[in-house]
UniProtKB/TrEMBL annotation:
Protein name: aldehyde dehydrogenase (NAD(+))
Keyword NAD found: yes
EC number, as in UniProt: 1.2.1.3
Organism: Fregetta grallaria
Recorded superkingdom: Eukaryota
Amino acid sequence: LPSGPGHALIEQWNPVGLVGIITAFNFPVAVYGWNSAIAMICGNACLWKGAPTTSLISVAVTKIIAKVLEDNKVPGAICSLVCGGADIGTAMARDERMDLLSFTGSTKVGKQVALMVQERFGRSLLELGGNNAIIVFEDADLNLVIPSALFAAVGTAGQRCTTARRLFLHESVHDEVVSKLAKAYAQVRIGDPWDSDTLYGPLHTKEAVKMFLDAVEQAKQQGGSVVYGGKVINRPGNYVEPTIVTGLPHNAPIVHTETFAPILYVLKFKEEEEVFAWNNEVKQGLSSSIFTKDLGRIFRWLGPKGSDCGIVNVNIPTSGAEIGGAFGGEKHTGGGRESGSDSWKLYMRRST
């Protein structure tokens, strides 16, 4: 860096050392993949704790990585694995040998992890929940809106952090979109995830089914109408119907609650300013989308008075991750960024 005569000013980046990685059930390979890759590129070793319900995947992936490392004369233990429940996660969060702890999971657990890591002045990277909204304006291309909303709300049975949970429709297109979306929902092929023709599979656990039913009941009690779905499917496994709920106010308690299930709350709006505010009024700030052809509105959406989310989309759905860009969110989503132009800095320490 520029400095005075006879004086050198250097910024040196070094590995942090050991990166702990705690991942969730819904993407049991991908999240560890991008965390471990960037950690190793930055010169770190990794200790992974996958979800207790996907431990066989964690074991298989760890063995594959170890073989690749050993084939290249590098110790396989650079990427080590520990299996277990919350007790193991707590131990990782509290252990001062853990130089960085990357946690992907719910906001509730993420807050506990953050407090434990902060108590020892450690470093954490948090990828937590999302209560993501799609906003459809009167000039939107509905042929684009319907499949986009369907995929964002129903894909992986609503079990993504970027799943669309709120759909704001301009009053002039509300009824048409709801009608078309319900017809699209009826065409979703439900079945065994091993079948290549299946578009929609089960929820992860029986507890998730109970949360789904509780949320549907709360939505009804708070004034919502179930226009599609809302029930458990009578077949082996944790299958529930993809569900559309209309008629709720934008600030209904259940609308502000992230339920990790395929429930889409459809809400009506009139003005741009109000709907931008409604997008931002939830505690999470992960992903958001608008559908419009108005360039001025697009730039307002991207600007300081637009979406307050970490991911701000235009004419594409909320779900999915562009691994070339910074992935993560604001507020109760945790503020962490995995991938993107400068995410590597969190996996290193800087000396000047």
